[in-house]
Amino acid sequence: SLREGEMLCVYGLDRLAASTTKEMMRIVTEVMDKGVSIKDLKTGWLFSPESKDAVAAIRSAITQLGNEKIAGVNKRRRNGEIVGSAGAGRALLKPKDIPRIAAIYHDLALYPTKPLQAKAAGVSEATYYRFIKKHAAAIENRKPKTET
Q: Count H helices, E strands: the chain?
């Protein structure tokens, strides 16, 4: 239980609530009403209940974080990258990765199954399957020549 004068340290404000900004603001308001400061370790922001605009400052910070996250996702998609289902924090595959992925894809001795290939590529199976499907022709063209 938090008491007046204590500080709640969170990795990021977005970690305070699982789903909605409304839920996050409810938690922030409840904590601040108890006289507890909130420190965002990722950004270094400190929100003190003594500040008369503390809740407004947090609301502004949450909006800024949301806009940065949305802009980052849109930027990655515009650049033609394949983004894992969660988006942030996931490994990305780009068209420049085709030679590396083709080598993994065609080396059945080392990577006999798609899950092993995805692991070798450093991405989730879903991301790997999407990349293979999208770039199938380019990957097939990089198939090693067999000796006859």
A: 6, 3
